[in-house]
Amino acid sequence: MAGRTGPESSGGTPEGIVWATDFLRGRVNEGSMAGTATVKQYMTREVGTVSPEDTVAEVARRIAESNDHNGFPVTNGRKVVGFVTARDLLLADGDALIFTVMTEDLIVAHPEMKVTDAARVILRSGIRKLPVVDDAGNLVGIISNTDVVRSQIERATPEKVGKLMRTLEQIHGVTVHEERRTVRLQELIPTQGRVYADELEGRQYELERGLAEPLVVIDNGGTLVLADGHHRVLAADGIDMTEMDAYVIVVDDSIELGMQRTAEKEGLSSIDDVEVVDYARHPLIETTERLQ
Q1: Owning domain of residue 191
Q2: Environment class of 95 (CB within 10 Å of its CB; exposed 0-12, middle 13-18, buried 19+)
Q3: Which of these three, 86, 117, 152, is where a domain ends?
């Protein structure tokens, strides 16, 4: 996402464009951003980087071939020594080395920094991405304006995941831990038998713009049980995505989950078994329309 979220309109006539920075400005100014989330909960951990010795032409080619990069942190080993954007490369000679054109006056975030503070830095500095470095100065991630927006619309918050973890521990008397990782959609066992076609459209819009919230998955002895995110998964499958980001609750000792047992009774063994209901509207949408 390049900061653009879509046109605002009234009566079918476009009146303007809402950018991610507009959203952040409104949330920061009104003081309504969630205050407990930290950068490490929303940052991207697998960061593309370039070397100070790479050429302008090489990095420009990487940016041109990428769908979501307009710049890269410049690293020497694990240390961040600069940042280079497409704008830095515009007038540079293709054979020039990156250290000659990169920005060295860096603004970075810390993993324990509050997302609200990261939002203020992004808004007031005018940059789109903050490298995230640990106490030793090593690069551990990157957080963008898209990540900050996602932290405000995401329903699968770390707090809710923590509540599910505590529930599992109390009911089953086991120890669990949480991991943030990518899961393959075809390996998931669904626990919901149907989804609504009209809601898939909105989920696909979020997925295509990097705004979709992570799934919540229980790793029960190697079996991946989808606890939350069925519409997101089916929407992703519909646009040929094969993997998604997820909060994975890992059960150290395999247990008999009620939701897993119910899925087996309903014949749900993969996402292909989930019915997409295209002849009915979501109950919430029906209620909203009746109230209009």
Answers
A1: 158-291
A2: exposed
A3: 152
Mean pLDDT throughout 136-147? 89
What is the CATH classification number for the domain harbouring 55? 3.10.580.10
In 217-239, which positions are buried (b, 16+ CB within 10 angstroms) versus exposed (e)? Answer: bbbbeeebbbbbbbbbbbbbbee
Mean pLDDT of 201-225: 86
75 and 132 belong to one structural domain: yes
Sheet-wide strand order for 215-220: 176-184, 243-251, 215-220, 223-228, 188-189
Q: Which strand (E) or helix (H) includes residue 184? A: strand 176-184
What is the C-alpha to C-alpha distance for residues 235 and 40, in angstroms, rounded to an integer? 27
Q: What φ, ψ does residue 279 adopt, rounded to 5°?
A: -105, 5
Q: 146 and 194, same structural domain?
A: no
Mean pLDDT of the chain: 82
* Total structural domains within the chain: 2
Task: For 170-199, write each residue's pLDDT tens digit.
Answer: 999 899 999 999 999 999 999 999 888 878
Q: Is residue 201 located within the same domain as residue 75?
A: no
Q: What is the pLDDT of residues 47-69, one digit of tens each?
A: 999 999 999 999 999 999 886 67
Tell me, what DSSP letter sits at residue 187? G
Task: Write down the pTM of the prediction.
Answer: 0.52
Question: Dihedral angle at the C-alpha atoms of 102, 20, 111, 251, nearest 10 degrees?
Answer: -130
Give the whole-number percent of the chain exceeding pLDDT 90.
49
Q: Are residues 49 and 185 in the same domain?
A: no
DSSP-derived letter for residue 188 is: E
